[in-house]
Amino acid sequence: MMLTGGCLCGEIRYEAEALAGDVADYCHCGQCRRAGGAPVIAWLQVSPDRFRVTHGEPRGFHSSPGATRWFCPNCGSPLYMTDQDGRSVGITLGTLDRPEAVSPTVHGWHSARISWFETTDQLPRYPETPPYDL
Asked: Is the overall model pTM greater than 0.85, yes or no?
């Protein structure tokens, strides 16, 4: 399934191909909370060969060893994240044109979850990074 998305102001646009079995995760880690300004951020993990920016030039921020978060330099929307090994691109589900097209499949970094934030789903919960198997 081909997905499209972009930032709030429209300066950055991207497309990604999602395949059955791709991991979509809720991330509860502190860095995702701060970067997204929310108690949890939902991501879709795809291989880099299935993702491309189609308009604009996002700016990167090295948020931790091995990780770069990409955002719109105009409006600040957090868009995607890459790893230093070029293994995956994590796309923020909230920036998809049709976010309902992808449903999270797991919870990552559940050990860092804010105590007052709980979902009632029955998805697997990993204390740290879920397996992406890309």
From this structure: yes
